Structures are given as structure tokens and as C-alpha cells.
Amino acid sequence: MHELALAESIAQAVRRTMEELPGRTPVQVRLRLGVLAAVDLAALQFGFAVAARESGWDGLVLEAVCVPAELLCVECGARTETRVAHGDCPVCGSSRTMLHGSDELEMESLEVVDGNTEHASRNDGDSPEATGAA
Ligand SMILES: [Zn+2]
């Protein structure tokens, strides 16, 4: 699956960054995600959660900032913003629309905490896996 491969490549980028930050724990990755990248964010987050756990980062979450595209209606000329990769004109309902936007997918920021902070240890205590039924 597309999203799982993406999730793994993001996790690899995090690993590379963390190698330069010994003693720190990543807590949040923020992506910029263009509408035209057509990524299923829920699937991406699921895949990333698995990859993060394998790396021992149970509390690491993936957030995405959606970069909207412009929907241009061929029928009525309306220009509207959209956050989905297909769409009918919201003004006249025509399906004859063109989409101008970005397919970017890049890591905007990576938030890390000191390995010994409250934040990191809280994640240990709250983790449902710690007391799991397995
Ligand atoms: Zn229209």
C-alpha cells in the first residue's frame, strides 16, 4: 500500500534525525500534505504508528497540515478552495472543474522532548500496551 510505504519513509527520516539527537524522544511529526498528493491520512497515521512503535516511540503522533487546492469551475468560472482531490463546483454544481494545487508531502517539523522529561515518562505510564492482554 502507498500509505504504508510513505509511513515507513517518514519513520526513516525521523530515525535519521533522532540519530543526531541522542537522549531525546520524538513526540510529534508534522507534515504538509497537498490535496493532490491524495494520501489517505488515516491509513498513513496507522502505518506510522506501527513504524513508530517498532522504533520504541510509543507516544509519537503524526499530524498533517492540509494544503488546500483551488477548484476552478469551467462552467461558471468560480474559484473555490478545496481539501479533497475531486469535486463538483460548489457554486453551480457542475462537475466540469479543474484543480490547481500542490501534491507536496514533506515533513514540516519534528517535535522532540528530552528523554527524561515528564512528557516522555508520562507516555510510558499511560501506554495501554504496557499492561496489554497479550
Ligand atoms: Zn460552477
Describe the structure.
The protein starts with a helix and ends in an 8-residue tail after the last helix. It is α+β, with helices and mostly antiparallel strands and 134 residues long. The model is unreliable at 118-134 (pLDDT under 50). A hairpin with a 5-residue loop joins β3 and β4. The protein has helices spanning 2-19, 41-54, 118-126; strands spanning 24-34, 61-67, 69-73, 79-82, 97-100, 105-114. It has a single domain (2-112), classed as 2-Layer Sandwich (hypothetical protein PF0899 fold), CATH 3.30.2320. It contains three helices and six strands, in the order αβαβββββα. A three-stranded mixed beta sheet has the order 2-1-6, covered by helices on one side. The protein binds zinc ion. The site of zinc ion has 8 residues, from loops.
Ligand types: zinc ion
Which strand order do you get reading across the main beta sheet?
Answer: 2-1-6
Q: Give the overall average pLDDT.
A: 86
Biggest beta-sheet profile: 3 strands, mixed
Briefly summarize what is shown:
With 134 residues, the chain is α+β, with helices and mostly antiparallel strands.
Features:
134 residues; alpha+beta; hypothetical protein PF0899 fold; 3-stranded mixed beta sheet; 3-stranded antiparallel beta sheet; 31% helix; binds zinc ion
Secondary structure layout:
Blueprint: H1 2-19, E1 24-34, H2 41-54, E2 61-67, E3 69-73, E4 79-82, E5 97-100, E6 105-114, H3 118-126
Parallel strand pairs: 1-2
Antiparallel strand pairs: 1-6, 3-4, 3-5
Helix pairs in contact: 1-2
